[in-house]
Amino acid sequence: MLVTAGLMSLLGIGVLTLGAELLVRGATRLAVAVGISPLVVGLTVVAFGTSAPELVVSIRSTLSGQPDVAIGNVVGSNIFNVLFILGITALIVPLRVSRQLIRFDVPVMIGLSVLVWLMAYDGHVDRYDGLALTIGLLAYTLWAFFQSRREIAAIRSASTIEFADPSTAFNLRGLLSNASLVVGGLLLLVIGGRWFVDGATTIARGLGVSELMIGLTIVAAGTSLPEVATSILAACRGQRDIAVGNVIGSNLFNLMGVLGVSSLVSPAGTAVSQVAFHHDIPVMIAVAIICLPVFATGQRVNRWEGGLFLAGYAAYITFIIVAAS
Fold first, then answer.
1. What is the span of the domain harbouring residue 280?
2. 139-175 pLDDT, tens per residue?
3. For residue 295, which of 284, 286, 306 has the smallest C-alpha distance?
């Protein structure tokens, strides 16, 4: 039983990763075709695409009566994204940080993290909270696109990314091809999300481990694998705006999109346990706050700072494992 569940989880991760790759590849080409900056591509298209597994997993978990997996997935992914992904990426290549991130996007991430904690004060994020978060995501996305369009004349020469091929983006064949990638990626995400949640939940119950812990660790790390691959690949190819923007954008999408939509589609919203409210969400807030001084000092994340991020994640995982046992 556990072996079968383990194989299902691994297969689910593989399908999720492939689906996210197809979605990001197609969506990014379409985005570049309409002329938006690499930073905004990272903050929106790439971030939303690589966070689609979290969305699928959390919605399915909420509707299946597993809210601890849903909230653990969001909180755990945000912690994982900053401490692990930025940490390991900065160890490989020191990361440049845009002023826009420092002045706007990171403060928004901090504010949203605190807002989610306040929403969870009564033990759940209800439908009205979910609606507010979802509207916030729409507003943020529109702002990012319009802001980028105003600046595109100055940055068009820098708007080349690994997935981009503007020469084919405007012909009908190219558009249909990229749209097919998006649709195919979404279908694979749905299938992979179902397999992964089913397998992980079976393992958790079989081993007597709480669903919250599984959501914070296995599910959070598994659904964040597309972000790991995307950020490392982007940094190694010199697209450091995309590498950092992907992480911050993914966190914003997790808070507004994943948690918002999951709470909106569930009649009872998303329940938040006392453990998550008192321990894990405050850690998520602290991690978001830490980003501001690290990013502001020299507008870069150096290797030694990346090492500290990784050490912080190791300490966090050790703490929750010890606490659970």
1. 2-324
2. 999 988 887 777 665 545 544 444 444 444 456 777 7
3. 306
Q: How far apart are alpha carbons 117 and 255 in whole angstroms?
A: 11
CATH number for the domain including 288?
Answer: 1.20.1420.30
What are the tokens at 223? 């659904």
Token duo for residue 207: 């081993």
User: CB under 8 Å to 203, separation ≥6 — which residues?
Assistant: 2, 5, 6, 9, 209, 214, 218
CA dihedral 287, 292, 297, 299 (to 10 degrees): 110
Cβ–Cβ under 8 Å, residues 20 and 223: no
Domain count within the chain:
1
Residue 322 tokens read as 């010890």
Tokens standing for residue 313: 């994640």
**pTM, two decimal places:** 0.81
Helix (H) or strand (E) holding 280: none
Q: Where are the alpha helices (DSSP H) in the chain?
A: 2-33, 38-40, 47-50, 52-63, 67-80, 87-92, 99-100, 106-119, 127-155, 166-169, 172-207, 211-214, 220-223, 225-236, 240-253, 259-265, 274-275, 281-296, 303-324
